[in-house]
User: Fold these one by one.
Assistant:
Number 1:
Amino acid sequence: MDFEQFFKDQLRRLREENRYRVFADLERQAGRFPYALWREEAHGPAREVVVWCSNDYLGMGQHPAVLDAMRGSLMLNGAGAGGTRNISGTSHHHVLLEHALAEWHGKEAALLFTSGYISNETSLATLAKHLTNAVIYSDADNHASIISGIRNSRCEYRIFRHNDVEHLRELLAATEAERPKIVVFESVYSMDGDIAPLSAICDVAEEFGALTYLDEVHAVGLYGEHGAGIAERDGVADRITVIEGTMGKAFGLLGGYIAASAGLIDFVRSFAPGFIFTTSLPPMIAAGGLASLRVLRGAADLRARHQDRVRYLRRLLAGVGLPVMPNASHIVPVWVGDSSVCKAISDRLLMDYGIYVQPINYPTVPRGSERLRFTPSPFHSAEMIEKLVSALYECWHDRSFALDPTGTSSLPPSRNVLARSSAYEAVARN
Ligand SMILES: *Cc1c(COP(=O)(O)O)cnc(C)c1O
């Protein structure tokens, strides 16, 4: 077989569909968030741009307390963990951080993983595989890491329509009462920014004795009095069996975790290959995570300012008639609906305005629902927001994009008519 030809053909297909991924070469500037240096070519000149699509939602990746903790641990403990958790790789910082995470979520215990992706994949696969004859109920919009975990478990699963509690109930009711059931969902959905009805989902899950697994990756640090997520905000944390989070987003670092009962955590710790057979996070990451958590706990002001920036951006976008997708979170998606136009607008914003926002295309979102996803932080000034909106407005009405030549922007068709299963398809093919 001609392997090189095969790779080339596959990549050509991606390019033809306008979904070949081009990474922006960025140098983030600690102390200058959300500015970064961007290079078009590796050895070319650098240019300062404003980053509008970072998941470091609160700029914690540059917080002095986090940097101090990491610097301190780096000098004291060195660079890497030196082993898996079982074989010399458990540092004191890991232990302290797991205690703090558990307490934050009101759970008995917590367990760290090298990423949020791994925490979902290996925890779900391990739980579902070992619970004999289990059935998983998974929201249609769940993240690729969740879908991959479900598939790896080789367990029977059913997909319920996005945030549709009645559909979930129907599916649960249609299953034999004695089979173990796991309901898997997210709180804030990353690409639409909508929020799940946690309490109603808990009601149904409890009615059928199902275990609940909640991905709070886009909510930890951002919602609730102490920033512990939507489950804290809605007062339902004690009704969720497993809360999964990441340190890669609002924490500004890297690493994932689950928080649950002591028994469940001990079980995953003892049986999950993605936890057992890999080198643990460097101690300095755990130290940074602990420092970040301490700040986030008391960061009500930062959270309020974050939501204030979000409201301002939304108001200006809607004010000039741009199709901002409505939701109740901090994620501001602007609907484009065409992959080449989405990429062209993103390129133009970067080249002509020094504004960086990555186009979001299939399979991250369904085909025909391509969008620009903005994530304003407390550090995006009013002036930056105003500049973004006027730049986007100019691009939008530029006829060369053949977008919206009449000047009337429209919101997407009802999301229920879209094919929602893009991520499931994508994972299934891999
Ligand atoms: C980003 C993301 C993850 C994975 O977290 P990482 O720490 O980045 O690996 C899991 N779930 C959702 C919903 C995500 O958006």
Number 2:
Amino acid sequence: MSNPEVELYSDTKTRPSKAMLEAMMIAEVGDEQANEDPTTIALQQKVADLLGKEAALFVPSGTMCNQIALAVHCQPGDEIIADKTAHIINFEAGGPAVIARAMIKPLDGVRGQFTLEQAQAALRAGFRHAPDSKLIAVEQTANLGGGSIWPLEILESLRILANENKLVTHMDGARLLNAVVASGISARDYAATVDTVWIDLSKGLGCPIGGVIAGSKEFIAQAWPWKQRLGGSMRQSGILAAAGIYALDHHVDRLAIDHANARLLATRLAHIPGVQIDPLTVETNILIIDVTEASLSAPEISERLLEKGVRMGAMGPDGMRAVTHLDVDEAGVIRAAEAFADICG
Ligand SMILES: *Cc1c(COP(=O)(O)O)cnc(C)c1O
């Protein structure tokens, strides 16, 4: 089934709306590789302003944003400090080992977040047998942490630790704007705690493609050759950038609806026998559901849900993930919860 009626597998499954497509159709375009695409330049300026950084760069994916940042910041053999659930460790096909050729020290955090003390303890002593600690990476929101929001104070304390030890800080902000809408803390305030940060256009913002990475002018100048090297330079990318501008104008505030739907789904699922989820831990649009005690395994539940027109991913035998987004409404999540109850009740 390619298009289930209720799609909760991921917020990447969103499709461009008619209004977004119209914005794309009338975009002014040029050759992006030559920095001549006016719509791409406008998107980059808009994201730089949103994040309070000097400059920004449009690239085809969030993964490429991460890989470019790590490659710019790290020398081969350097060490990156990240939570064990980080996207850069688990879902980028070993990219840090291949491209930046850096090591990663995975920390055993809770819900995708490590503490200042854990980061401090992970720092290398700086003698010649050890790799150099170079970068602290955080994910806002933490994807496998169930969309949890890193508190601003912790991010600030990590920045101080990094400064004191001459480390760089990087934020995988795939869902930073979910954190912004849920917490009321500005994107600028979160972004001020890191040297480099990016947002994904193709998740909850509903665009077909793209990520935008921001940092100092010097960082962006160094990011350009990496983008070229990785094959990320484009031509008339204004068609895609127009979707990004449209999304930033129309799809940010509405993320609150996705968060309310996620909370509603969690509240409904929590009543089903054998299903464990604390609705209070659902801070944004991602639910991690524990079905250890349910009558069926996660893959079985996933399959049965699909037969009922609802898609949720299984994460191993005992976990499931559901993600709300702009193509699922309140009636959709209620339907998903009812299907889940029919299967497991
Ligand atoms: C999706 C995601 C990425 C990668 O973004 P793509 O645009 O899919 O390449 C990176 N980090 C996190 C936390 C993500 O959820």
